[in-house]
Structure formats: C-alpha cells, structure tokens
Specification:
eight-stranded mixed sheet; 33% helix; alpha/beta; Metallo-dep_Hydrolase; TIM Barrel; Urease, subunit C, domain 1; single chain; globular
Length: 446
C-alpha cells in the first residue's frame, strides 16, 4: 500500500510539473508575439554595406524582393512598390550565424519535459534535432534581435548524439525554418584524460576506459560501413535480391558514411584533439569538423595539416590553471594563423544572443575585425555548405541581414532592423517586453 501511495504521489508530481511547463510555454509564446513580420519588397538606401565578399560599399543600396537580395551596390532604380528604408549613417551586415547551439531544443532547464537536446543511450545517430525544434521558444526572438539570424542546433548527450539542424530564426514550424534539416552528425569524443582533480582512477584505468569507448565507436562505424555497402549493392542490383532488413541506427549513419553530411567532433584538450585527428584520417570518405577545441592553439599546425575546420567560442576559462587568461580569446587567431578555417559556435541556448561578442573578443585578440566577421558569417556558411545562400550580402542570396547604428561586435551598438528570409522581423523579444513593463513600475503620472 505504501509503495502504491508513493507511486501515485510521484506520478501526480510529474503530471503537475508537465502541466506547469506546458502552461509556461503557452503563456510565453503567446506573450512574446505582438507583431507580425512584414514581407514584400524593401529598399535600404544611403547605408554602409558590409558585403563580406566584395568589400564595403559606402552610401550603398540593398534591394530585397521576397526571400532574396535583388540588388547590392549604388544608384539603383527604385520603383514605388518598394518600402523605402533610409538608413543614412547606418550599417548593413549579413545575418550572423552561430555554428553550434542548442537553441530551440530546451526551454526551462529545471523542467525535464522541456529539454529535448538529450536522449538516453550512448549511440543515437537516428535522433534528429530538426524534429524537436520549438519555433515558439522565448530564446529565439531574444537571439535574432541581436543580429543572429540562423544557427546550427544540435543534440548533445551520449557518445554519438544525433543529427544537428541548420535553421533560420523565423518561422512557425521547423519545416518553415529549416535550411538544412540534417546539417551534421554530432560526436562527443571520448577523453583519454582524467576528468578533473577529483578523478581517483589510475592512469591504467583511464586508458582502459578510453580504449573501451574507442572500441565501441569503431565497432559501430564498421557496422555502419558494412550496412551502407550492403544497401548500395542492393539498390544497384537487378531487383532480384531480397531487400536487407532496415536497421534504424545504421540507416541514419548512411549519409555520414557516404560523406553527404559532416561529423562535428566535440573535443577540447590537446591529447584528445590529436587522437581525434588520427581517427579521422582512417575515414577519408567522411567529412569532419572539430568543435570546442579549447586547446586548439597548442596543436594548431596539426589541425591545419589535417584540413579540419573548427567551431570555436571565446568566453570560457582556460583548460589548465597555469595557462594565460587570454588564451581563450587568442585561440581563434592562433588557429587562423596556422591556416585553420574558424567559425563562431557558442554552445549556448538562451545566450546565443552573445555570439557577436565572442567574435568581438576574437577580433580584439589577434583575429582582426575582417576575419572575425567572416568567422560569424561566411566561414560557417562554407563549412556547412550553404554559402550559396548565406554568409554575405550579394545578389541572389537569401535576404538574411540586419541594420545597425555601429559595429555589431560592440555591446553598445543597437541593432535597428533584422531581415530573415526576406521577412522584416518585429524587433520585439521577452527582454524588450520586460524592459518596457518594468521601466516605470509603480510610477504615477501627474
């Protein structure tokens, strides 16, 4: 009887928490949508255009027609059907891209039913972040009004977490937001190091654990390679063969094995990075990207020689107590100097809005403003194969861009207007609503 009562209490508690979470999500989603995005034809004039690929155009014009950029330059013929935006003294930039986030996959960290970035099990290649994106996430408007118009959002749990998705930050469904539904597979590299000062394992135990993890990964990979070859053989056959049994996890690996989508390897420490590089060289048909790489500066030449792009942040503390505090800020520059293509990836959820400042630190600590701008626009677009659509301001590209009153890497700069896929986005977020709500709280008008 006692156990039944306890079980009843447990399920009632879980139900109550679920109800609260759903209520909060519904309330916040309803509260934050106060305006509709505008769509049509827009003419942004008298503006400094930072094209990224064709330099800077002073006193320029950008024409948007539907979802695309129609014209970039000077002296455009602007007809009356364009909505005119005089941006004198302002700047227009390509929309920023954060190449590694969990945005849209988690709403309230303390409420389990709102956390969709993690699944049970070590190997989940069949998990797709795309199917779990919440278009009404409160964090999305907060992010986009700071100039971040598209992101890679990825699952993060286990060894092989699943497939990341590349999305625009405007839309009512995941389908309407998707740029690349399956943008990459995410792999958390097993460490060959102790987990910290409290890790009491011997060096032998650490090595044994590492070898066990690598064996599990290699076993899955070998099965996936064999499965892919078997399926290709069947598909290329005469049709007389019996169709092999479909295995969900191995089927999900096929576009990885064949090189159609890359693998993002999250790895930080020097020894682990070198191990990961050596492992990637055994799989030449698959494309790999390194993420995190907090000690990348220690092995920058090796990363460059392996031709592996890196997704990096700057706002973290050094891996080792004796490292200079500037190393996280210098890491992107040191990788770039060695010949590595770098892109900004915050690894955040609600703080993806700070992506421009990660780039700003990198610019200040050696990367330079021009390369830092590429690291948050063109470079990630090239890494994920969407530079034909995104990453710069050019005719025919998708109209993801924003207007600012200054350098967007500076926190005091105001982002005045954002366009995503040609939609003129309302500059409203939960932050702006709370600011307006509490600016004059309790004040009485005379």
């Amino acid at each position: 009887m006692v156990s039944l009562v306890m079980m009843k209490k447990k399920y009632l508690k879980a139900f109550a928490l679920s109800g609260i979470a759903v209520f909060l999500l519904a309330t916040t989603a309803q509260a934050q949508i106060t305006e509709k995005a505008e769509f049509g034809k827009f003419a942004i004039t008298n503006v400094t255009v930072h094209t990224v690929i064709d330099g800077v155009i002073e006193g320029g014009v950008v024409l948007i027609n539907g979802e695309e950029i129609e014209f970039v330059g000077r002296n455009a013929r602007i007809t009356s059907d364009y909505q005119h935006i005089d941006a004198s003294g302002k700047h227009v930039y390509p929309g920023f891209m954060d190449a590694g986030t969990q945005l849209g996959l988690q709403e309230i960290g303390a409420v389990q039913v709102t956390r969709d970035q993690a699944e049970l099990g070590e190997f989940n290649p069949h998990v797709r972040a795309f199917t779990a994106i919440n278009p009404s996430s409160v964090s999305i408007p907060v992010t986009r009004v700071n100039g971040v118009t598209h992101v890679v959002s990825m699952p993060v749990s286990g060894r092989l977490s699943g497939k990341a998705t590349l999305i625009d930050l405007y839309g009512y469904t995941p389908d309407s937001m998707a740029i690349s539904p399956n943008a990459a597979m995410h792999l958390n590299w097993p460490t060959a190091m102790k987990r910290g000062p409290h890790d009491q394992r011997s060096d032998k135990e650490v090595e044994e654990a590492y070898q066990k993890n690598i064996k599990q990964l290699n076993d899955l990979w070998e099965r996936a390679v064999f499965y892919n070859e078997m399926m290709e053989s069947y598909q290329e056959g005469s049709g007389d063969q019996e169709r092999p049994e479909v295995q969900k996890k191995l089927e999900a690996m096929r576009e990885v094995i064949s090189g159609n989508i890359p693998v993002i390897i999250s790895v930080d420490q020097k020894k682990d990075i070198l191990n990961a590089i050596a492992w990637t060289e055994k799989h030449p048909k698959t494309h790999f990207i390194l993420a995190g790489v907090q000690e990348g500066w220690r092995v920058a030449d090796e990363i460059a020689e392996a031709d592996l792009p890196c997704l990096v942040s700057t706002l973290y503390t050094p891996e080792r107590d004796y490292d200079n505090y500037q190393r996280p800020y210098q890491n992107p520059a040191m990788l770039h100097k060695a010949g590595v293509k770098v892109a900004i990836a915050t690894g955040e959820i609600e703080n993806v809005r700070n992506a421009p400042y990660h780039a700003g630190y990198a610019a200040t600590y050696g990367l330079g403003r021009e390369e830092a701008l590429k690291a948050i626009t063109l470079n990630p677009a090239e890494i994920f194969g969407v530079d034909d659509k995104l990453g710069s301001i050019a005719k025919g590209k998708q109209a993801n861009l924003f207007i600012s009153d200054g350098d967007p890497f500076e926190p005091m700069t105001q982002i005045e207007q954002v366009f995503i896929r040609g939609y003129k986005i309302p500059m409203v977020s939960r932050h702006s609503q709370l600011y307006e709500e509490y600016l004059n709280r309790g004040a009485e008008t005379n």
